[in-house]
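Methods: holo model generation. Sequences were used as deposited, without trimming of termini or removal of tags, and paired with ligand SMILES retrieved from the corresponding compound records. Each pair was processed once, and we did not select among multiple samples. The sequence and zinc ion SMILES for this entry were:
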Amino acid sequence: MKQQLANFLLKGGRMIDPAANRDGLFDVCVCNGKIEAIGENLTSSGVTVIDVKDQIVTPGLIDVHLHLMKGLGAFGVDPDIFGVGSGVTTVVDAGSAGHTLLNVFRNYVTDSAKTRVLNYINLSTLGVVSGPGYSILADPRLIDEAKIEQAVEANRDIIVGIKIMATGGALGAQGLKPLERARKLGDELKIPLLVHIGESWTKDSAPVHVGDVLKYLRAGDIVTHMFTVHPGGLLDGNGKLWPQVRDAKESGVLMDVGHGLHNLNFDVARNVLDQGLHPDGVSTDGHRGNRAGPVYDLPTTMAKLMALGFTLKHVIELATANAARLLGRSNELGTLRIGAAADISVLKLEDREWKAVDSQNGTILARQAITPIYAIRGDTIYEPLRVERP
Ligand SMILES: [Zn+2]
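and the model returned the structure below.
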């Protein structure tokens, strides 16, 4: 459901915009798709008033890790399902396409979506053509630096980094060599690496030690699946953070949630958080196989973090200002700016008890739920799709 309006006023909502240090009752006036005014008690004649009393108005939410190439493999999902259909205005594909598929991605995914769709190009030429359980980096010919460079240079407007599966299953006999090659590419192209940790797909191969992976990462690179329970995660056999993890975090390596079918475990999360390591981004790792649970959408994943002790403001900061920084897009995303194209999420915070379920069917009692009300891009207001949230 969507409607287009030349002029409208979001009236009476609580605005939470951490990057702008705003938390309070502020109205937003949108004129011809641009934010014309933000202020208390705005009035305007000749505009449509949208009552958002008792609702939360935020910069457009950003989901930094999903699988968005509908029709490719078992997981590709239409970006507008987890995007504007979930109150989210920006979604980021994590490595569906290697360099050979990037133009297809651009033409058929990014350009045809209602949601803004950004992309991490896969280090492997195969991308996810063969599914996550295959050894996509085990043959050295499957990394083609020159072709990746060409694809990145031609698509810098949508590419935010390089995706690497740092699992024993994906790397195979190549061991850490693909990470070395990714490091060089990242340095040359000046884009970050997004690294999947956790042996979630290939149980029979020797896991890669996270400390070995982190040797190749620098400030601004991202580790996704920080709360995975699978071998190769952030914790040692005694549930303590590997020392290399703390060092990496201190040196500026970023940590992302990446919920997914396998990689949000509440016990691991509590343990990691208790040891003082906090996420720099929140993401669903959304795909076709987890929309109906345990993931549902980004607002539900944010509410799960709240059940783990985060404040509303903190989870909104993760999904807006922090996400924009993680993507290197703080100049255009993550905050509401007068004169910029409208990019706004409207949410509802409900005080109610519900059972939050993690990727291993572990549960915790959550006391607040977040549901999307609108995703707004320019002059278009999208209502969320129906999904049976818990
Ligand atoms: Zn993923």
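The chain has ten helices and 18 strands.
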